[in-house]
Amino acid sequence: MSEPKSFHLSAAVHEYIVRHGTSPDAVLRDLAEETARLGPISIMQIAPEQGAFMTLLARAIGARRIVEVGTFTGYSALCLARGLPEDGQLLACDVSEEWTAIARRHWERAGVAKRIELRLGPALETLRGLALEPRFDLGFIDADKPAYPDYYEEILKRLRPGGLVLVDNVLWMGRVADPSEQDPQTNAIRAFNAAVAADPRVDCVMLPVSDGLTLLRKR
């Protein structure tokens, strides 16, 4: 956790940011360290300052029902679940039994496992199988980039008015702002960013948190 995930931050500034916010506790630190041992794939884990922001945001809006697309080893889910009341519920969607096994152990240790329902399988199928009621208060998208528009649409139709959607990796290490970058992943994120910025159903702000975090409020 000593290296910034944010491409635009120096290590010193990142350390200062983390130190002057709510710091990760022992469970989050251990989870981050275990995830780091997976190798380069660990870059998929959210940054500690983003996790603290997500916990605070869930608490600030009084979220009771949250849906997450892309759980990985569970850091983001743990942070979101900590923002829920005791009877709140987080639906976590992922496809990997291996990665989410790490998540489950740390959720149990953190005392939030009872607030998290993990569904393994294609997230789009899971979302489409959900009823339109009761509605979610908050959604978080951090999965395969070309499918972002589909996840967004399925969550938005199940989100209460005034509810929020958070979308990760919208700066894509700065590649979205470089016209020479024309790979499918970068172009998919560019297209998604342009679409939600122009979507009349939501208010939208893109924040330079970690690798870019878009915050959307359903009107």
Number of strands: 7
Indicate how many domains the architecture comprises.
1
Rg calc = 16 Å
Which CATH C-level class is it?
A: Alpha Beta
The N- to C-terminal Cα distance equals 36 Å
Question: Mean of the pLDDT scores?
Answer: 96
Binned, the helix content reads 25-40%
Strand order of the largest sheet: 3-2-1-4-5-7-6
Written as H for each helix and E for each strand, in order along the chain, the element string is: HHHEHEHEHEHEHEE
Total of DSSP H or I helical runs spanning 4+ residues = 8
Strand % is 15-25%
Write the layout of secondary structure elements.
Blueprint (H helix, E strand, L loop, with lengths): L10 H9 L6 H11 L11 H13 L4 E5 L5 H8 L6 E6 L2 H14 L5 E5 L2 H6 L7 E6 L6 H9 L2 E10 L15 H14 L4 E6 L5 E6 L1
Parallel strand pairs: 1-2, 1-4, 2-3, 4-5
Antiparallel strand pairs: 5-7, 6-7
Give your account of this protein's structure.
Helix 3 (48-60) runs parallel beside helix 4 (75-82). This protein has a seven-stranded mixed sheet with strand order 3-2-1-4-5-7-6, with helices on both faces. The protein has helices at residues 11-19, 26-36, 48-60, 75-82, 97-110, 123-128, 148-156, 184-197; strands at 65-69, 89-94, 116-120, 136-141, 159-168, 202-207, 213-218. With 219 residues, the protein is an alpha/beta fold. The relative contact order is 0.13. The protein has a single domain, classed as Rossmann fold, CATH 3.40.50.150. Strand 4 (136-141), helix 7 and strand 5 form a beta-alpha-beta unit. The protein contains eight helices and seven strands, in the order αααβαβαβαβαβαββ. The mean pLDDT is 96. 38% of the residues lie in helices and 20% in strands.
